[in-house]
């Protein structure tokens, strides 16, 4: 089928990788500490919403040489799958390190620290990754390196795409009965 014969319904479900705009990572996930900013950098192209995905999230993440996209983390609720489109690097996974390169698939099921993961671009060119995940909400992420956790909840009924993001350490927790 050529482009001229696609109808409007099909157009909503199909996008070419060349048409995906890459933007700096969303502000809530952008490091503002100069010491951290030297370690982390990524551009992302959101795909899922463009093609009408409802239960899976899709994006292209591009990591420059020497950088990481996100801190080492695990998801308690959502499963992720990654496909290396271009480049090479290293994947921290469950306390081990593995080389990754173009053509590799990586599965990251929901779980504890044994499923924690992070991509590091150890190559000389950009590391480009297709990321696919379930979109269950609320989500709990843990960050084994820093001892933090995050709670994220999306509000899909809001047109503005509002979400709650709370990042803390267990020591920040209040007693259930405090102030009652």
Shape field: globular
How many strands appear in the DSSP assignment?
A: 13
Q: What is the name of the CATH superfamily?
A: Jelly Rolls
Give me the number of helical elements. Answer: 3
* Level-2 CATH architecture: Sandwich
Q: Describe it for me?
A:
- This protein has 180 residues and is mainly β.
- The protein has one domain: Jelly Rolls, CATH 2.60.120.
- The strands form three sheets. Strands 1-2-3-10-5-8 form a six-stranded antiparallel beta sheet. A four-stranded antiparallel beta sheet has the order 4-11-12-13, with no helix packed on it.
- β12 and β13 form a beta hairpin.
- The longest helix has 6 residues.
- It is globular and about 55 Å long.
Question: What's the gist of this structure?
Answer:
With 180 residues, the chain is mainly beta.
Keyphrases for this structure?
single chain, mainly beta, Jelly Rolls, 6-stranded antiparallel beta sheet, 4-stranded antiparallel beta sheet, 13 strands
How are the elements arranged and paired?
Elements (H helix, E strand, L loop, with lengths): L7 H6 L9 E2 L9 H4 L5 E4 L1 H4 L4 E8 L10 E2 L4 E7 L1 E6 L2 E6 L3 E4 L8 E4 L6 E8 L4 E5 L4 E7 L8 E7 L11
Antiparallel strand pairs: 1-2, 2-3, 3-10, 4-11, 5-8, 5-10, 6-7, 6-9, 11-12, 12-13
